[in-house]
């Protein structure tokens, strides 16, 4: 087969190939999703109004202040949100970004799965050339004993060759016990050497801001329900709300939201 034939075959194959995807416009959307290879816009980014995030006032204040610093170009921390499930860790991250955008700050949310940690250097390369500020959100990380996740995240936070760029901060959520695997003896041993701290604890130390979330007490749960019911103009009863929570095994922001959906359904309403 001569060179001309090979050239024609190559040209024909090139014509059949789909054109390369255009570069993502990183200024056009409020939020993006990273799939391990490319960014895609989140077309329906609808964070909760910040006044509906109740029962976690200190965490909300600290998160909003840190995020505002980052969005404004000032020094800011990477954030670890740890603790009880269903208490609004993920919702708070999205709500804070939405609030900053309403204030006119040039910041966007980027969501990435914990299964794509190894690909984040590729994402950082793409984000680093933008003039926008980004909050990279990795939700619900849980590490087992054989997982390389802690070391991967540490390398991204430590300032090495593959570290996150200055216009990006990492916000990670998890049950803290999955990140910091320490026995009670280690927690109380005053002479526990730093050299003996495992990779998971070393990872947690890399976050400048750590925010804990506990399950709601009765007063906080009732406040959550009241905020939702007021926002959606729904009638509700405290005893009914507490019974609903008891049937579902606990009080949390997620249960409060489920109760709100139940109220709207009973009333034949959409929310």
Please characterize this protein's 3D structure.
The protein has 271 residues and is α/β, with parallel strands linked by helices. It has two domains: 183 residues, Rossmann fold, CATH 3.40.50; 49 residues. Helix content is 42%, strand content 13%. It is built from eleven helices and seven strands. Strands 2-1-4-5-6-3-7 form a seven-stranded mixed β-sheet. Strand 5, helix 5 and strand 6 form a beta-alpha-beta unit. Helix 2 crosses helix 3, helix 5 packs parallel to helix 8 and helix 9 packs across helix 11. The radius of gyration is 23 Å and the shape is globular.
Q: Which CATH-level-2 architecture of the largest domain?
A: 3-Layer(aba) Sandwich
Residues in helices, as a percent range: 40-55%
At CATH level 3, the topology of the largest domain is Rossmann fold
Beta fraction of the residues?
Answer: 5-15%
Report the oligomer.
Answer: single chain
Report the count of strand segments: 7
Order of helices and strands: HEEHEHEHEHEHHHEHHH
In brief:
By secondary structure, the chain is of the alpha/beta class.
Observed structural traits:
11 helices; 13% strand; single chain; 271 residues; 2 domains; Rossmann fold; alpha/beta
